[in-house]
Amino acid sequence: MPAGDGFTLGKEERVAGRTLVESLFKGGGSRSMSYYPLRVVYRLVDRQQAPVRILVSVPKRSLKRAVWRNRVKRQVREAYRLQKHLLDAVMEGLPDKTLALAFIWHDDKIPPSREVAHRMRRLLIRIGESL
Fold first, then answer.
1. Whole-model pTM?
2. Distance from C-alpha of 103 to C-alpha of 100, rounded to nearest angstrom
3. Is the pLDDT of residue 47 over 90?
């Protein structure tokens, strides 16, 4: 992690590459949970650069305009960035694994950022408990 306060979200913390995305969505070892309107699909994979890697998706079916989809994606990324420390202790116990997370938005409304942060916090706590 780069020097600073630890609240960064760098390129190495993003899910990238077809094999990782396919293993996340098509693999049999993935689990999911939701706290409407946010759903998360997650899986432990072999260790990569970062202990946790994320992907954020807002389907066109949910929000028609790209501006709205981009705003919700920014809100979800920001909520994760500020609360990713909730998974740090869990991942320190698994030094040879990386947690791949995919956040999927399922609502047709743009929420307040505080609501997104609250739902993200609940999901991250539940993921930490399930690991």
1. 0.88
2. 10
3. no
